[in-house]
Design brief:
This protein is an alpha+beta fold. The chain contains five helices and five strands; from the N terminus they run E-E-H-E-E-E-H-H-H-H. It has a five-stranded mixed β-sheet with strand order 2-1-5-3-4, with helices on both faces. The model has no long low-confidence stretch (mean pLDDT 95).
């Protein structure tokens, strides 16, 4: 198959990458760009472990062909931290035990980050609804919801 050159902006940095037509965005991010924070949990788009932002919209990168991301802006879990400091969502997941085995954590963090950009003061129902595309087999979701609530409070200056 003929490879194609695509341009991606990942976490604010431009990349020119040769891809095969059937190559997944997840694999390009992990193996060609070198950002291994995005995980593959299922490979079928069901678990959300591979969630990234594509032009500020949540997508499952295991289902997207890399060639379809040409000229797009992508934010991974690594790009949420600012100037070497963890984002409040990342800190809250650590402080509130919203992570255990770590496979689902990057997808949850990206989804929570996107949620808090859209809805700065989410209710518990809004948090649960907006994180429904991410599955966790370890935590039971209570700690994840607590972490998102705490991050929302910190981002609003009351945490």
């Amino acid at each position: 198959m003929t490879k194609r050159l695509i341009r991606l902006t990942v976490n604010g940095k431009p990349y020119d990458v040769e891809v095969e037509p059937r190559e997944r965005l997840l694999d390009v991010l992990r193996y060609k760009v070198g950002l291994t924070g995005t995980k593959e949990g299922c490979g079928t788009g069901d678990c959300g472990a591979c969630t990234v932002l594509l032009n500020d919209k949540r997508i499952t990168s295991c289902l997207m062909l890399a060639i379809s991301a040409h000229d797009c802006e992508i934010t991974t879990v690594e790009g949420i931290a600012q100037d070497g400091h963890l984002h409040p969502v990342q800190k809250a997941f650590m402080e509130h035990g919203g992570l255990q085995c770590g496979i689902c954590t990057p997808g949850f963090i990206v989804s929570a980050y996107a949620l808090l950009k859209e809805i700065p003061h989410p209710t518990e129902e809004e948090i649960r609804f907006n994180l429904a595309g991410n599955l966790c087999r370890c935590t039971g979701y209570v700690k994840i919801v607590e972490a998102v609530k705490a991050a929302a409070q910190e981002l609003q200056g009351s945490g």
